[in-house]
Amino acid sequence: MQAVIDACNSGRLAAIPAVLISNNASSQALQRAEKQSIPYYIANSETCADSRDSPDQFILRILLEHRVDLVILAGYMKKVGAPVLSRFAGRIINIHPSLLPKYGGQGMYGLRVHQEVLDARERETGATVHLVEEDYDQGPILAQEKVPIKHDDTAKTLAARVLETEHKLLVETLSKVIRGEIATQLTRR
Q1: Which of 1, 26, 117, 173 could form a disulfide with 129 if both were Cys (CB 3.0 to 4.6 A apart)?
Q2: Rounded to two decimals, what is the model's pTM?
Q3: What residue ranges define each of the domains in the chain, with the CATH number in brackets?
Q4: One of 96, 114, 130, 167 is an active-site residue; which one?
């Protein structure tokens, strides 16, 4: 998320962060959004308990109120529900720390991904930017970048190098989507 905000602030990305939604009330992303004066909301079963909205309905309402064009899952760790998937089909982008379709799916996040890659004795891994669909990490791939695995890598050292690649790849891919160089529903509207 911070890489996207920084790219918007510097002009490298022709976009304006409209809103941040987190399911985690203690997320550092909320503090970062507040520091940047980006409106932010917490959407989970606790915050929506007294509401007529489910967390997914709440998220959809907030996205529509803030006139969001493109949804970026930069650290959002919950499965996106049908209301949001339907309304924003082809306009939800995720970054994943592997070369999908390898090492994706439910439960494959964080150090788990990198440990699986190392346990499989892969020679390379990387990052993937993809469109979000109903099943975890199954949407169309928009971009990938490889990261070589070093002989002394641990899950933590590999994660740090892949994260650097993720930041760069996400911003580059978003820029191409915004310019219409990569086709999504955003560019077909």
Answers
A1: 173
A2: 0.92
A3: 2-188 (3.40.50.170)
A4: 96
